[in-house]
Amino acid sequence: MREEKIVFTKSSFETKKFAEKLAPLLRAGDVISLTGDLGAGKTCFVQGLACGLRVNKKITSPTFALIKEYLNSSNIPFYHFDVYRLKFLQEMLDIGYEEYFFGEGITVVEWGDKIAPLLPDEFLEIKFKRLSNENMRKISIISHGKRWAETAKNWLKESRKDLCTDINTSEA
Ligand SMILES: Nc1ncnc2c1ncn2[C@@H]1O[C@H](COP(=O)(O)OP(=O)(O)O)[C@@H](O)[C@H]1O
Ligand SMILES: [Mg+2]
Most buried residue, 102, 129, 134, 147, by CB count within 10 Å? Predict the structure, then answer.
């Protein structure tokens, strides 16, 4: 089951706020894959998510380490992967990715499309695209599996009043 919804944000602040609203809907074992070019807004989204999860650390991309692990006040681990520089899937096996993806924490993966074969059957895919207006982003929310379709619906319901979901732009 695959379902797609689209929203637009007009600033990095809006993207963070949108991400923050997803946090309360997440639970241990969740995997979220973020895709889109450099500068599209993936890390910005992770920062909002971390804020919503009450992670009180500054989030930067773990470009050289593949993964950074954070603890929040309720002790649910938050795993932030950035696989931009990954060359071989084997590197994920070497760091024991299953312990993260199928463990007790919440996982978010920047450039998740690079490790598509390793993603679980059910995951949330979020695609970021820059539009010609410098601060405008098209965000596609693609739910893989019933749980995510339901979660995405609730997330968008929470966000609807803050976000534009229906604009006319030929490039969107
Ligand atoms: N609507 C928006 N959403 C997210 N980021 C935005 C937006 N508008 C401008 N930006 C800027 O775009 C850049 C996104 O960078 P980043 O999140 O690191 O991208 P990525 O991780 O995808 O490479 C930041 O400098 C951010 O301030
Ligand atoms: Mg990034």
Answer: 129
